[in-house]
Amino acid sequence: MSEVAFLNNSLLVGALLFGIGMIGFISRRNMIVMFLCAEMMLQGVSVSLVAWGRYHNDWGGQALVVFILTVAACEAAIALALVLMLFQRTGRLDIAAWHDLREENLPPYADQEMLEDREPAHRWPKLTPAGIEPLKDEDELLHREYV
Amino acid sequence: MSNTQIYTGAAAMVLGALAMWLMLPRGRRPGRLLGCVLGSASLVLFGSLGAGMGTLGSDVAFASLGGVTVISAAATVTFRSPVYCALWFALSLLGTAGLFLMQGAQFLGVATVVVYAGAILVTFLFVLMLAQPGGDAYYGRVSWEGILAAATGAVIVFFLTVLVGGVLNPYPDSELVAALTSFRPEESGGLSARHIQSARLEPDEDGTWRVQVGLNAAAPVLSPKDIDRLRTHLIAEVPRLTREGVGADDLELNIAATNDPLLEREASDRTKAGGVLNEEHVASLGAQLFSRHLIALEVAGTLLLVALVGAIAIVQHGGFRQTTVNQAAAGSYGRG
Lengths: 147, 336
What we know:
Strand order of the largest sheet of chain B: 1-2-3
Strand content of chain B: 5-15%
Number of strands of chain B: 3
Radius of gyration of chain A: 28 Å
Oligomer: heterodimer
Distance between the termini of chain B: 59 Å
Largest sheet of chain B: 3 strands, mixed
Number of strands of chain A: 0
Shape of chain B: extended
Number of helices of chain A: 4
Number of helices of chain B: 13
Structural class of chain A: mainly alpha
Distance between the termini of chain A: 87 Å
Largest interface: A-B, 81 and 108 residues
Radius of gyration of chain B: 28 Å
Helix content of chain A: 55-70%
Helix content of chain B: 55-70%
């Protein structure tokens, strides 16, 4: 197996993972999805590191990925605690709820007119009545609910 | 990296950026299907950028693992419901773990599945279910500047790939390699394709042409007389040189053992004791971690403990502060 070609291909995949994660981190508004995207960028870096380590026949790449894994676990713990706390304060996971933290000279974020794609309300199927209508119970007919 | 590859990369980037923009949640505007089509086209172009690794089996395995990883990564970013995002991310992690296994990093492959997909992702899902019991929210259906984000990502990936492809240059010039391997020297053995690490043919500004050939350690050493013969051989055999009518004086021939010593490493180095692909892989990684990286490892363990304590502290204080809005308004944030 050609090692240079393998390294090249792995770096391609790593760069793609990093780029896709970055696009998501910039553009998504749900805080949890943003953190997923940050983890994805870490994955891209890990793939590249392992590929370089293999190419250079060096353990450094894999050792570094072990540390990345550790830091990612710490990051996830703290980030999720923060997200939960922020959620308790505003009641939503929207990062735009925290635009108060912007710099002084920037205008406040105004939600544009969202052309929302509202899902149509569920229409449950109705069964057409079929068969013989059962006899009505006389007791039930005489029974009044709210006496 | 030749011009064709740069253009292919640029086309793949433009298509990929368009596809990401179309697929990102943008309220009502349609185009997800078109985005999927463009995305697949971009992925195919990307696949053509990959260099062949020698055997069909490894090519197919790598292409399918990489494809699963990248496609599910794109789905993670573009799905509206965060639960689906998390599930697609799990698939992407499995693809990455497969890539790790293919690269010979067995421990990391298993650790990714256990730690990431098993622990971190499940925690994400827990938080999602705590925070969004009602299902989708409107802010999942819209995104910030989608087109700018996609363009930024595409530019970064383009430069990463172009730089990587330019530095590594895993695509030897096929005409030049054919001419080199058909050359029969008088005083030593001939060159074969496995001796040639890199082969480039570039015109210079002053009309001369430069041939740079990197040979690995197993290649025979060519005598000066043979190199002169190789010059005339190349002029006759490489169509570009013949077409341009390059004389023997205008051809600068650089044949060298590759100057990067790391390129000369034989494949067998990796499987020897201590190499990254040796038989006792996990034991060797552990030995590395606990000898060379011992202090870093201890620090990482401490970091985990600190993060644990910190997470608990954040959650406790955050919940308390919310109930004391007046205190918060009076500016006593952080006093608990």
